[in-house]
Amino acid sequence: MWDQLWTNVRVAEATPRGDGFTLIEQAAVGVHQGRIQWIGQAQALPGEPAQLARQHHTGGGRLLTPGLIDCHTHLIFGGDRSLDFDLRTQGQDYAAISAAGGGIRSTVSHTRDRSPEELCDIALPRARSLLADGVTTLEVKSGYGLNLKTELNMLKAARLLGERLQVNLQPTLLALHALPPEFAHDRARFVDEVIHEWIPAVVEQKLAVAVDVFIEHIAFTYAECARVLAAAKTAGLAVKVHADQLSDLNGAALAAEYGALSADHLEYTNGAGVSALAASGTVAVLLPGAFLMLNETRRPPISALREQHVPMAVATDLNPGTSPLTSLTLAATLARAQFGLTAAEALAGITVHAAKALGLAGTHGQLTVGQSADFCLWDATHPRELTYWLGRALCHTTVHQGRIRAPQPASYLPTL
Ligand code: DI6
Ligand code: FE
């Protein structure tokens, strides 16, 4: 006997290629031991509901999609950067604010010296906002410590978040984000410390599953990033790259060279970079929140990515500096409005392709037998609508590993 049976739902998914939707009317979903046990048209169920499952839920005719996956966030940090945004709206640019001591380093000063418990408490409301919008798998990066103790504290805070919330939390060590002021005149020694101290500590304490680097003029060079990615792979961790966000430094090629799970941002990626991603099977993660808030005009090479069948994911990049965006459906809506993704590409981008960007293809992101029973019921009539409203709360119910999640207080969302 199954644990649960859901009936009176309309099952909607984007095709794995992102070129359309599949819709099953009058569908049913059987759940057992946290996984999907059966899915299809209710009339094909192998018995009466009362005989099939211990619990029977009706979905009230709502759309049912895979649980959403936010595959790129920096949601743990102290303070905020509303002042940076003020300065940007008055004409200063991101790189200049960073050079003048604002930017990432100002968040670092508010993040250092906080305990994992404090960092978790601070991040909790932001995480709840994402969850209220249907997120069941959440990637969280470190990167605002810039010293080993605080990086580890951030990752411990991420672990606490995963324990306190019903969510599949995927922690990433963002090893090269900004050069710590203490190493201003000794870049190589900092990279050495990351390789010889940070990565081994994270592996030993099992605090991260991936390592990320930021290749950019205001951050790190190709060679510095390559050294860290090589060390991460040797240590058995997956790798990811913040690539070509503000300029073209061959970040996509770097990601491909090291078999990265994903290359993220990609506004300035060149044609060779797109081909390299296609060849390596690396997911392109689009981050329209940062594009919007930095008032960027150069879009990622969507047509080339589409033509070469590079899977495109969409994420919030939730961070204090460039993307204070706490809704993944809004991120996907922005990806449609700003980058021209189709509704199906946008939904694939926050489900099946986002799972691939986290190395979770096959277990998460799709509604197939054997996958984790993570799904959402929506007050929407067509899956297109999920990425159409700007900031409307359509998520009615979320199921994570077969368990209905309690409603998340998300004060920023207007109530229906
Ligand atoms: N790219 C981003 O968009 C964030 N980090 C990164 O490498 C921005 C981080 C910040 O400005 O605090
Ligand atoms: Fe980022």
Structure overview:
With 416 residues, the protein is α/β, with parallel strands linked by helices. The chain has helices at residues 49-52, 82-89, 94-99, 103-111, 116-132, 148-164, 187-204, 222-234, 251-257, 271-280, 288-293, 302-307, 328-339, 343-349, 352-357; strands at 2-14, 21-32, 35-41, 53-66, 68-70, 135-141, 168-176, 210-214, 238-243, 262-265, 283-286, 312-314, 375-378, 395-400, 403-404. The longest helix is centred in the middle third of the chain and has 18 residues, at 187-204. The protein is globular. Residues 411-416 have low confidence and may be disordered. The structure holds 3-[(4S)-2,5-dioxoimidazolidin-4-yl]propanoic acid and fe (iii) ion. 3-[(4S)-2,5-dioxoimidazolidin-4-yl]propanoic acid (DI6) is lined by residues 103-104, 107, 177, 214, 242, 245, 290, 317, 319-323.
Characteristic key phrases:
24% strand; Urease, subunit C, domain 1; binds fe (iii) ion; 416 residues; binds 3-[(4S)-2,5-dioxoimidazolidin-4-yl]propanoic acid; TIM Barrel; 15 strands; single chain; 7-stranded mixed sheet
